[in-house]
From TrEMBL, chains A, B:
Keywords: Activator, DNA-binding, Repressor, Transcription, Transcription regulation. Signal peptide: none annotated. SMART domains: HTH_LACI (SM00354). This is Catabolite control protein A. One of its GO terms (molecular function) is transcription cis-regulatory region binding. It comes from Lacticaseibacillus chiayiensis. Residues 6-60 form the HTH lacI-type domain.
Amino acid sequence: MEKQTITIYDVAREANVSMATVSRVVNGNPNVKPATRKKVLEVIERLDYRPNAVARGLASKKTTTVGVIIPDVTNMFFSSLARGIDDVATMYKYNIILANSDENNQKEVSVLSTLLAKQVDGLIFMGHELTDSIRAEFSRSKTPVVLAGSIDPDEQVGSVNIDYVAAVEEATHQLLESGNKRVALATGSLTHPINGQFRLKGYKQALEKASVAYDESLIFENEPSYQAGLALFGKLQKVGATAVIAGDDELAVGILDGALDKGVKVPDDFEIITSNNTKLTEMTRPQLTSIDQPLYDIGAVAMRLLTKMMNKEEIEEKTVMLGFDILKRGSTK
Amino acid sequence: MEKQTITIYDVAREANVSMATVSRVVNGNPNVKPATRKKVLEVIERLDYRPNAVARGLASKKTTTVGVIIPDVTNMFFSSLARGIDDVATMYKYNIILANSDENNQKEVSVLSTLLAKQVDGLIFMGHELTDSIRAEFSRSKTPVVLAGSIDPDEQVGSVNIDYVAAVEEATHQLLESGNKRVALATGSLTHPINGQFRLKGYKQALEKASVAYDESLIFENEPSYQAGLALFGKLQKVGATAVIAGDDELAVGILDGALDKGVKVPDDFEIITSNNTKLTEMTRPQLTSIDQPLYDIGAVAMRLLTKMMNKEEIEEKTVMLGFDILKRGSTK
DNA sequence: AAAATTCAGTAAAACGCTTGCATTGCCTTT
DNA sequence: AAAGGCAATGCAAGCGTTTTACTGAATTTT
């Protein structure tokens, strides 16, 4: 018994109506007499008909699918965003094609290209840098794009973020306030605007307000990994830092463990504020004080924004900035 | 200047060949004279032509897209599998539609249905239970399916796992060996075969070999969350357990922190072995001894298996079992 | 009661591509 | 030199929908 794909045509024949009518009932078009609708629905049920989304996509030029480019699903920061994205997508009947990029420009471009070939209705991009080649791909198509947890200094496309300048300024301020003379800043590459422009700016502003001189040797560029953090602590000690602001939670946990492993007391002898408030921050002892970014919400809002764009609705502001907090826990005094 | 979608037809016209020929060069069909190929390629380049994958999918009945159903991307266990899946998928030119199910049967069924409507070429399913309704959806279509890190006791579909019985037996054995009289088992719901059938079986086997009586009060069903673990530790103390095997790493971290918070020494007064060896296990102090499942590989192998199925290649064994280890760290003596 | 309007439904043309089959040259064979 | 074979290409029929334009019938308006 070969399984025969059954089409809209079969349904039409069985129900004694035209394909168009079947299409209307499937799509909830009101121009169908209730009796007809019922009849068609019965046939659909009986035949176990399931509309072919590919054919639909070709005819309607809509795939109800959005592409999501993520550096690494395995990183809690991004997976939290992704979860928010998916939930809202589902809510609006979209599906998500998820692609890992490792922040590798070549992969990003190539994956972007195949997503566009697949005719996604929209794109959500995560990653710390928006290179020119990516930007070029974006503008090459008219597919709407939203950045989630990522910054476009030029504000060409939509984006959802928190105010990184203010957040880091506040965190630095707190660390300075509690008596630290040498507060280090450990982020990813400074070539990424979020680090080199925003976080660094907030950091400097706080120093300035406290009349503390800026010392470049307190700035560290790292991979956002536990191992990197572990190794970093030694360097922090070497430059005489007594506190650090970490741009990534895994990194922060690494720093914490690095300190603990050397018998350094946190927060008594060393303070840490991290940036993403992922689950990790609660799991350590002491727990990590963190900038509280609403990760899930950033993803959710980004996707919501994208739905509006795909719908060609009026957008009041395509760069949205969500609020943040500093969540005090055990890694600061 | 409206952006006009440019089609294979435009390329054909500009290159003075038929659509068929263009299609052939795009698809790498060898039956094209090098000179013609070159000419077509040039036009493609000049016109910036990008084949429409939806149309392709309709015509060829292949979408080069696979559906991935995951309980929650935010859970490291699953995101690690997902990463393996995506990498191999990319390697074989597939994309992944990722959908979170929360292990909720209704969501699973509904998402499965929309994935099939989207004509995915294959499916990877993660989740601890394969309900009848899901199984029914599976067999309703002829789309190949592989379970990753999940068990189908009936072996109807492909699956990639480790030998959970042996793993838990070994873990239990070690805990018994080091002098624990009362070893607890903390997993998710026992209605899930992986827990109720496999892990429990391994646990019992170890007890039996050590001539220790089985005591039901040492078995705990929990959510795989940090909070649940935190709360669980009290209960473990109450029943006099001095060691536990946790089915989930977040749960294990919770238990560990629960112990630490009460001043109980790990591993001296309480031992813990967890199950998934995610990054988390390295981040705690002490670090967690764990069953070492090759998470990434499970995903990768599952996807590889799926590619074979989609290719209709001969499959030697559709239930594959990967090796495991017990990685000794600080949470056991 | 004729005209205008709305409602239900039909037919058929896209949508952009793949692919089986047919065709055309151009070489080899004999 | 006729016949056969093969490589390269073209033709056109799908693939399963949506959607536009249209038609009749039913209903309302005047």
